[in-house]
Amino acid sequence: MYSSSHYYLFHFCLLFVTCLAQTNFHPKTLFLAVKQDPSTLQYITQIQQRTPLVPVKLAVHIGSENLWVDCETGFKSSTYKPARCDSRQCVLARSIACGNCNTENITRPACNDPCYNIVSNPAMNTFYSGGEIAEDVLTVQSINHSTPGPDSRGPVVTVPKFIFSCSPSLYTQKLGKDVKGMIGFGQQSPVSFVTQLASVFKFSRQFAICLSASPQENGIIFIGHRPYIFALGFDASRDLIYTPIITHPNFFLINRGSPEYYIQVTSITINEKPLVFNKTLLSLDENEENGTKLSTAVPYTVLERSIYDVVSKAFISEMPKEVKTVPAVQPFKTCFDSTYVGMSRLGYNAPRINLVLHKPNVRWTITGANSLVKVSDRVVCLAFVERNQTFGQAIVIGGFQMHDNLVEFDLARRRIGFSNSLYFRQTMCSNQFYTM
Ligand SMILES: *[C@@H]1O[C@H](CO)[C@@H](O)[C@H](O)[C@H]1NC(C)=O
Ligand SMILES: *[C@@H]1O[C@H](CO)[C@@H](O)[C@H](O)[C@H]1NC(C)=O
Ligand SMILES: *[C@@H]1O[C@H](CO)[C@@H](O)[C@H](O)[C@H]1NC(C)=O
Ligand SMILES: *[C@@H]1O[C@H](CO)[C@@H](O)[C@H](O)[C@H]1NC(C)=O
Ligand SMILES: *[C@@H]1O[C@H](CO)[C@@H](O)[C@H](O)[C@H]1NC(C)=O
């Protein structure tokens, strides 16, 4: 009697598991291909959205709370559904206002009692508070972890009701050719790309970016679980070093968690020598000023002026004597004749910059591949820029410094993991099977 019920249970499970796998695939990891646009220096990805599905190019902004697109020009979809004021969608998207359809230009297929949130375009230096909240179909490519290697692309999966924001065409200025909006991966936002996908497919809220240094080759954004497999089976998640994500409670000075990713830099060393500057600049304050954030919206790491000066002086003095400085090339201020700058498999030979994080032994190491940029045949420049404004973060770690590093954002465990240069592992961000 016992053994027979056991037998039936066993068969029932087998059948059940098989059915589930065939009809209802639950991906653990999704991915997007990402490539730098050489003219705008933004990181561009493409999603499929609407009915019928169309490819939509978007600029990646890790520290932004939502996905937004231009709905004013050429938006057609039979599944588009605007959110109504005070609906669940408006609350999730952290709507800041409801409005009257007549007061703004018509930017979308239908308008009825709309709610709005903030659309940000850092390239224009603009926040627009009239992003109309809506939902529509969106699809993403998955990874099938049971077949590591060249066949590891899984099926395309569908999110039937992805919440996003509609903006007028005006706010896509400076996004480059055919780029229709931005895709946000921000923390503390229920509608960021990672949060919505994690909630639909029931995986933990995490994503990892790996930006390619070459504008000809795709890097990748993994959304969901590890492993992050590169060529020859190397799993970059094994190498990660972690630092806590710092959250800020008051985005725009209102009680609304900031989507930006802040970390604690406690000091900077160049060739192991600590730099001397005013360390109070390194603390994020109650007005969301100072401190350090990571951003894909800036191409080169931005340093507050006094910090830039100290970094630049130390970097120059640690360069070999035969390497001479040359006149600056915009937007850089510190440039060198590259004739005597050597090369290795880690890129240019350059003084090693360490960002020392929350603990002395947790360091983000920046080697020549991520500290020197070639601007002409004979000139390389320190790939950091000086902050022009009197406000903002003391350090904004930009795209160039993240090239060919894997950076994981683990929202559930509130930590950021970074691999340091994959060149140490003889690989790079384009060297995986998913986005070729
Ligand atoms: C509305 O359209 C007019 C004319 O095209 C334009 O000048 C104005 O900037 C638009 N307003 C918004 C909020 O997009
Ligand atoms: C994943 O790969 C395995 C092995 O090739 C295959 O049997 C399975 O059908 C794939 N799953 C999906 C959802 O494609
Ligand atoms: C450091 O900077 C803060 C604010 O910018 C200032 O109040 C403080 O006096 C500075 N400390 C030193 C030692 O210069
Ligand atoms: C933070 O930054 C602002 C603007 O740059 C500055 O006025 C302020 O003194 C800074 N705070 C500290 C603690 O350095
Ligand atoms: C600062 O201004 C200069 C000149 O306008 C510009 O080239 C540079 O890119 C700016 N730097 C930043 C960080 O915006």
Automatic annotation (TrEMBL):
It comes from the Eukaryota. GO terms for cellular component: extracellular region. Residues 43-419 form the Peptidase A1 domain. Keywords: Secreted, Signal. GO terms for biological process: proteolysis. The keyword Secreted applies. GO terms for molecular function: aspartic-type endopeptidase activity. It is found in: Secreted, Extracellular space. Residues 1-21 form the signal peptide. Belongs to the peptidase A1 family. This is Peptidase A1 domain-containing protein. The lineage of its organism: Eukaryota, Viridiplantae, Streptophyta, Embryophyta, Tracheophyta.
